[in-house]
Amino acid sequence: MPAPPVTLIDVAKAAGVSPITVSRALNEPQLVRPVTLAKVQEAVKRTGYVKNMLAGGLASSRSKLVALVLPTISTQTFADMVQGATDRLTAAGYQLLLGIVGYETWREEILVETILSRRPDGVILTGSLHTDSTRQRLLQIGTPVVETWDMTPHPIDMVIGFSHEEVGHACAKHLLDQGYRRFGMLTANDPRAGQRTQGFQVALAKQGVNVVVARQVPAPGALPQGRIGAVKLLDEHPDLDAIFCSSDTLAHGVLIEAQSRGLRVPEDLAIMGFGDLNFSGYTNPPLSTVKVDGAKIGAMSAQALLNRLDGDDTAERIVNTGFELIQRGST
Amino acid sequence: MPAPPVTLIDVAKAAGVSPITVSRALNEPQLVRPVTLAKVQEAVKRTGYVKNMLAGGLASSRSKLVALVLPTISTQTFADMVQGATDRLTAAGYQLLLGIVGYETWREEILVETILSRRPDGVILTGSLHTDSTRQRLLQIGTPVVETWDMTPHPIDMVIGFSHEEVGHACAKHLLDQGYRRFGMLTANDPRAGQRTQGFQVALAKQGVNVVVARQVPAPGALPQGRIGAVKLLDEHPDLDAIFCSSDTLAHGVLIEAQSRGLRVPEDLAIMGFGDLNFSGYTNPPLSTVKVDGAKIGAMSAQALLNRLDGDDTAERIVNTGFELIQRGST
DNA sequence: CTGTTAGCGCGTTCAC
DNA sequence: GTGAACGCGCTAACAG
């Protein structure tokens, strides 16, 4: 039996005060005398009032909503970002509007439009490759924006992330230092993966080394594609001594194939991944990887928005969170 | 430079029509003559109008928002639920409001209150253990509700899930059929895990078999706790021949410990899990598990709400989605 | 098919 | 510390 909707006015009548007093009692209790406050709270309980943030948001132009746009949620790091952002936002009385867009830019464009129609107080975007139209809209509406999970010299507003090219550099240096020279690459065709492989190749080239062979699979590269990719790479170039993958999932597939061929990893073949896939099936998985703290990035992004909303405009607009190169399986 | 906000009235002026015509052109294009429609669309583009669903929702009492409340998002199955629900909702023009509550009921109570303040058109809840106050609120507001991931004889509204007791039964039968008799249990202290272990024990008891020893860890049981738990179980009862775990993650920890003791799994020790953790680190992980299709449950829940919102009230209110017992590692 | 009128429920701005 | 009037931007219901 849905009871008739209870409004703030009903509460006001029940408490014997004016509507605005109820509003204040709910939103800025310190501005209301304790006695009045108690009366209001009692009336709220008695009437079963639930506040209406549609009306509130419309009147105040503050929706207490923050949108988070992610390509997928089925990756541990992105799930961590959701968790990290949610924690911060909830603590500050905000709610999360989640958008999942996959890896196609045009989907983001549509989603951003839909999201903006809710008038969120802030938007967190993954990556910094957006259509012009998306950028326009965001700038026009004037909502604070954090681009995350990437670095860019021309941010829409704020940036909290790391450079995927630097990741590529670091991986190249790591492998070169260990003496590897004949490189294969296996990458998913998502833009950030591309930046990593780009950085990887550039860093190699500086040392006069070239990638022997590269293969690409559709994003987000799944494990079987990693294995199949490895089959092709190793069949065509049996003398490869290192394979650089755009994700741990792909790397995992490569590892399985390598082991089934009796290759010792990393002695015969080094494998590098990216992400933070849990390799706990192995006591000590013999592949190195680059790890990023998703929860931290999510929390920092949320915090950046909250600061801005508090009028605190002093912080850096561009923050490099860095990443961690994890070396495993070596002697 | 945030431009001044563009309202529907601005568009109406620009198009030379009345505001309501713009509204219709945007929401029910088929009710508007093509010529008018074109004029409006042109005006929308020219002005850069973005619709305001706060205002729209307030006026129409339809927010086009559906809330999904989950204990965590860092579990593959729950992430799949988000994905499944998002897909259906997006296709129908709805957006997802995500709430993550952990495993404490009082947190859900607060979150539900906050969520209802957005006046979502529907709410999807995980499980069916809610405080009275939560149930009251939901019933009072009259929002369509789907309780999922569980079965209950006294639903708030609709239910789409499976019986955790049946899962326990099925596991018990499976292990008994294979000849195992000396059972240990390792479970997280979340309510649904409790129902599974309960069902497991009852089914065993019917065959005159009792669980030798049970241990509990805080929800959501992590892998190290699985391993530590296994140490204690096996130290105290070296003659166990099967361990029933409340999750694959715990089971995985048990597996690692078993292997490090040189136990053959499942010949010397059977291990049962629950969930759909990807054990791809193993070519053929030797533990059986129960698998649930999260994406399907998410999509079905969303669809159930959408049907209701379309006035379609004919479907079953209680749907048992079932689960799949996956036997692995046996001869 | 399109326009008019009248709110939706609340917060802002001033007064008191 | 509390109240009154007004408007946020849009849509329901009817009229034409």
UniProtKB/TrEMBL annotation, chains A, B:
Pfam families: LacI (PF00356), Peripla_BP_3 (PF13377). Keywords: DNA-binding, Transcription, Transcription regulation. InterPro entries: HTH_LacI, LacI/GalR-like_sensor, Lambda_DNA-bd_dom_sf, Peripla_BP_I. The keyword RNA-binding does not apply. PROSITE patterns: HTH_LACI_1 (PS00356), HTH_LACI_2 (PS50932). CDD domains: HTH_LacI, PBP1_GntR. SUPFAM superfamilies: lambda repressor-like DNA-binding domains, Periplasmic binding protein-like I. Residues 6-60 form the HTH lacI-type domain. Coiled coil: none annotated. SMART domains: HTH_LACI (SM00354). GO terms for molecular function: DNA-binding transcription factor activity; transcription cis-regulatory region binding. PANTHER family: LACI-RELATED TRANSCRIPTIONAL REPRESSOR, TRANSCRIPTIONAL REGULATOR. This is Substrate-binding domain-containing protein. It comes from Duganella flavida.
